[in-house]
Write a structure and sequence with these properties.
This protein is mainly alpha-helical and 438 residues long. It has one domain (5-297, 339-437): Glycosyltransferase (Alpha/alpha barrel), CATH 1.50.10. It is 43% helix and 11% strand. The protein has 13 helices and eleven strands. The chain has helices at residues 23-28, 55-70, 85-101, 107-117, 136-153, 156-170, 194-211, 214-229, 262-279, 283-296, 350-362, 373-386, 426-437, and strands spanning 5-6, 39-40, 71-72, 77-78, 243-246, 249-255, 303-307, 312-317, 327-328, 388-394, 407-413. It has a three-stranded antiparallel β-sheet. A two-stranded antiparallel ribbon has the order 1-2.
């Protein structure tokens, strides 16, 4: 979750099959030579982490439940009736775990999912496959997963597809409205929103870091310069959903004042970290800190006070500042349904995206000066303690990544990390995965 590698604790050992490299990855990585398997454990001292959680084990249990409960081997995606992009996030969970633990147990499933989902989409055949969808954000989620697949396997095909996806998205940049930016809705050629442009910045920066081709750095810097001035970042340094055209000046746009979703605050953090690594310009980190501090600060709509005695998060704003004890909460959690969980399938996944990118920013600082680690630990411990249901999962069969011939336990998670647990879904589960695997 937090990017520190250490020795595996003796209290919880991972399944033995996680300790070996399988044949497929040996073929892909033969030129790199043997590597030593290492595992993530909680890096925090006892004064911060009261539960001493084993993040590797809990990540494994989360992915086991993800696959057993939601993966459809016929469709080669998770919960086929749910939005397609959520399967890209599930795939990202598997890839992040595989890279973090140096295991290839999930690699056959990863390869199969990519092969299957790269075919032309039934609802958008004009994209001609390779994840080119009817929206730029859906395309970008898959392209970012492909960059991780390239990192895991060394297979240049995955990088080439990601580059094709970048070109596909870039063609929807236009200066005719909002003086720049990428549209989200390709089918209707409309809506310049935060997530599509943030994802593009992250994608182009990610490709540059892997290729050092100057054109990608030029485009990602252009996209960030436009984004920063577009008006989507409001006076509180939070990012609203998108832009709307000014009726008096159609070529100009303004903030649409729609919801400040957590993932809109998150994706840009990871993108700015990558821009910092691409350029060495610390101003990118400084701007990321400004957005992150606003997102987790005392007046943020994303942070609510947490009461462990009630096993739930209240709707009042937390008075804590960055690094405080507030619980990450999406506004939709208190809307719509009788049980207070009105987030739709998309929205259920947002918090994990924010948490993983906040952790990425946090890792840029020395261990004794990490600005967000206490908050991240609090979210993880709250989720583990109050928002979890243990289920039995079958360790055998193609739907289970770490194939074994014995039953195992897995963990399902709900949308409200402060609890109580009521039920899980694909979006809820990948959000938990993002929290563990950031």
């Amino acid at each position: 979750m937090f990017g520190d590698v250490g020795k595996q604790s003796s209290h919880h050992q991972p399944p033995p099959e996680l300790l070996s490299l399988d044949f497929v990855r040996q073929v892909f990585l033969a030129q790199k030579g043997p590597t030593e398997t290492q595992f993530f454990v909680s890096p925090w001292p006892s004064c911060l982490s009261t539960l001493n959680l084993n993040y590797t084990l809990l990540s494994h249990r989360t992915l086991s439940a993800l696959n057993t409960q939601f993966f459809n081997s016929t469709a080669q995606r998770w919960s086929p009736k749910d939005p397609w992009w959520l399967s890209a996030i599930a795939l990202t969970n598997l890839l992040s775990y595989s890279l973090s633990t140096n295991t290839t147990s999930y690699l056959p499933q990863i390869v199969s999912v990519i092969e299957s989902q790269s075919q032309p989409l039934p609802w958008w055949p004009q994209g001609e496959g390779l994840f080119r969808a009817d929206s730029t954000d859906d395309t970008a989620w898959w392209a970012l997963a492909l960059l991780l697949a390239y990192d895991l396997t060394g297979n240049i095909t995955y990088l080439d597809i990601a580059k094709k996806d970048e070109s596909y998205i870039w063609q929807y940049w236009s200066n005719s409205t909002c003086q720049g930016g990428i549209i989200q809705d390709i089918k209707h050629n409309t809506y310049k929103n935060a997530i599509s442009n943030e994802l593009y910045i992250a994608l182009a920066a990610g490709i540059y870091l892997r290729t050092h081709e100057a054109s990608y750095l030029s485009k990602t810097e252009k996209a960030w310069t436009w984004f920063k001035k577009s008006g989507m970042i409001n006076q509180h340094n939070l990012i609203n959903d998108g832009l709307t055209q000014d009726p008096s000046h159609p070529e100009r746009c303004r903030n649409n004042n729609q919801t400040e979703w957590s993932y809109n605050q998150g994706v840009i953090l990871g993108a700015l970290v990558d821009l910092y690594h691409a350029t060495g310009n610390s101003s990118y980190l400084s701007y990321a800190r400004k957005i992150a501090d606003a997102a987790v600060g005392g007046f943020s709509p994303l942070i609510t006070t947490f009461s462990s005695s009630s096993s739930s998060s209240s709707s009042s704003s937390s008075s804590s500042s960055s690094g405080g004890s507030g619980m990450l909460t999406e506004s939709c959690e208190d809307e719509g349904e009788d049980d207070g969980q009105g987030c739709n399938n998309d929205q259920q996944a947002f918090k994990g995206i924010f948490a993983s990118n906040l952790a990425k920013l946090d890792q840029e600082y020395p261990d004794d000066k990490r600005p967000y680690r206490e908050l991240l630990v609090g979210w993880a411990e709250g989720m583990y303690t109050y928002d979890r249901e243990t289920v039995t999962v079958d360790g055998d069969g193609e739907e289970e990544g770490p194939g074994t011939d014995r039953e195992e336990e897995g963990d399902l998670y709900d949308v409200s990390w402060g609890g109580p647990y009521r039920r899980s879904s694909l979006g809820r589960q990948v959000a938990a995965g993002g929290c563990w695997l950031g």
